[in-house]
Amino acid sequence: MDNESKQHGLFGRDDVFWWGAGNLEKRLSHVLGHPLDEYSITTRDLESNASFVNYVRHHHLTHRSSGESLDVVEKSIRKLLFISSLESRFYRERGVLAGGEHFKHPGCLGVIETLRESLIFTRFVKGRGPQMVRIAPQIAQGIAEIEALSHRHFQPANWRQRYRFWEMDYFRPWYLLRWRFNFVRYLPSLRDLPADDVRFHGLAERLRRLQPALRQAQSRARDTQRCLCHMDYLAKNFFVSPEGLQMIDWSEVKIGRVGFDGGAYLSGIFRQGDLARFTKVRAEFLNAYVEALDERFDQQSALRNVDYFFLQNALWHFLRPKTIADYQRRGKLDLLHEKYEYLLALPLISDR
User: Fold this and answer.
1) Cβ proximity of 92 and 228 under 8 Å
2) Could you read off the pLDDT of 321-351 as tens digits, one per residue?
3) Is the dihedral of CA 183, 179, 74, 260 positive or negative?
4) Same CATH topology for 2-123 and 132-350?
5) Dihedral sign, Cα of residue 300, residue 306, residue 311, residue 316
6) Is the domain 132-350 a CATH 3.40.50.2300 member?
7) Calpha distance 29→312 (Å, rounded)
8) What ranges do the domains of the chain cover?
């Protein structure tokens, strides 16, 4: 089984359409390419809180006579109006990240599409979670690598590819209208802050004034180079393994623009700890990113896009009622105030 499954490489068997999902043995037989009569299978559920995910399961297959084993992850994503998930579309782009050195990607064994769900099968990753603040240079190199590899890929040769890539593009209304990309919808959450704390008086209106700058940055970003964007740079999506830094979970994937993933990573770091540490990590990341950036990309445009996507993500996170309640519960309103002030000043940084 091991030699045969190696033939699949980074991306495995062609995806197929089935009317129904069938039983587990039938699904695994298809993606592995042979019957499983001589194998025992044990299954356990893995944690997942992503939108539209029905389940994520780890299947451990053991050959009864030889003892050889294989670990497979099965992810079921329910469809809306019979439309396949972004993640399954990502895995259809066979080989887009082949040749990458800084991030390793678990091999995809296959994709099965049914009327109601996308079923994605990948190799199970074993490793430990990294401390994201300590690997900023490696993250920067990995992001620059994904941008360079995928930008070449999105030069479609026929109308079907052009339509498919247009459908996945970040600048489609069905993505941009999501709440997380429209921070003003969360401004009423600021009413939950202490009414007698003068530091937060007028904050909602001050933050609202960021909207024109964000719209301008968004409009400017649209015309920069396209590339694949993971958009979810949290520690839960990375594992340090003997093979290298493994990157998983492409549920938020889009065809974005150069710099977007840098902003996603920095917004994740901004959520944690104090501003002194964030400022240090930001400098380390940007220095490594600029050095690794492909020469085909305009450096200034990429850095503006980093700031744009960072600001958008950070505003969404720090205006959520859950975040505000958490800072109040922990007695961290001083830090919350500092972070709001940092975000209010950021458009000046973007004006390069």
Assistant:
1) no
2) 999 999 999 999 999 999 999 999 987 444 5
3) negative
4) no
5) positive
6) no
7) 43
8) 2-123, 132-350
| Amino acid, single-letter form, for residue 259 | G
For the stretch 190-217, pLDDT in tens is 999 999 999 999 999 999 999 999 999 9
Rounded Cα–Cα distance for residues 345 and 341 (Å): 6
DSSP annotation string for 55-94: EEEEEEEEETTT--EEEEEEEEEE-BTTBPPHHHHHHHST
Distance CA 286, CA 262 (A): 8
Distance CA(158)–CA(119), nearest Å, equals 27
Q: How far is CA 343 from the centre of its chain?
A: 22
CB 289 within 8 A of CB 269: no
Is 3.30.200.20 the CATH number for 2-123? yes
Residues of the chain with pLDDT under 70: 1-14, 94, 348-352
Give tens-digit pLDDT for 261-295: 999 999 999 999 899 999 999 999 999 999 999 99
Q: What is the pLDDT of residue 273?
A: 86
- Is-contact 151 296, C-beta < 8 A? yes
Q: Which two tokens stand for residue 155?
A: 């030069």
